[in-house]
Amino acid sequence: MHFTRNKRILILLHLMVWAALFFTPYFLAGGQVELSPVAMNTWVPLGLYAVIFYLNYLYLINAFLFKKKNTVFILINLVLIGLLAFLNYELKEMYLEHILAKNKTIERPPHEGLFIYLNSITFVVPLVFALAFKTIEKWKKDETRTQEAEKIKLESELQYLRYQLQPHFFFNSLNNIYSLVDIAPDQAKETIHSLSKLMRYLLYETATEYVPLQKEIDFLKTYIELMKLRFSSNVIVNYSFPTVSGDVRIAPLLIITLIENAFKHGISSTELSRIDFKISVEEETIKFVSVNNYYPKDATDQSGSGIGLLNLDKRLQLIYGNDHKLKIDVQNDLFISKLNIPVR
Q1: What is the pLDDT of residues 35-58, one digit of tens each?
Q2: d(C-alpha 27, C-alpha 33), whole Å
């Protein structure tokens, strides 16, 4: 429907332009000019220009020029321009002979050969216009096709990354439950219930490009509480998350990667560990900060696949481009992650 409407508008524009070209000379003369000279000097050449324009616009450019058959395209147009210029000249000659026969006092214009040559050059103008219009149309179509291909590629990559994240997240959560089965069976049952809510969110509510920030915050709270059950009192976890309106939206499952990373690298089995998370919404920007003790893994520790931060960086680039800011730094044995993304 959209394509048909655009095509009708284009046809209407063409008709309006040609109508203006055909009738402007007559109207400029205030309608006082005889129709015969107007037809001979304006309408006949314009009609021949239209033949050149539309033969190229509708067929020749696509059939030859855009298929790299440049020599054939040039030869056809040289022959076409030559024939139409000759036809225009012959028609004017017939008209001039008719005028001379009627009025013996009118003489032939001087430098007739030069006039014919210059008149022939004007037949190149519609060819140039046809080339310009067709090239612009092709560029727009190619641009639209490229954008559609990029969009499909973007959606495919995001879907792949989302599928990659979900098993990774599920695997970590099952480890948490496994650690509770023997020492706290009741808590393990509650944790399974919490995990079911998390997985429901993952499976059914994160398929869209953006989700309400409040839903994402509720998901993060549940996950953090689930993680806290796994650790002893030597691990202190604090979070400060606001209550926000449903108008504030965010791409799902971005912040969870940084939270998982904080738990993975910020917990020691022998020392006191502290992790702090904070989310705020300031001036159309969602800000997340996590600060935790830094206990780097040694070469023998195979926990974690390392895909988390790489996955996050890819998704941020695909979704937000240069509109986001991710900074990860280690200062005084503290691992600090800062993420700023625009409100959607």
Answers
A1: 555 555 677 788 888 888 889 988
A2: 9
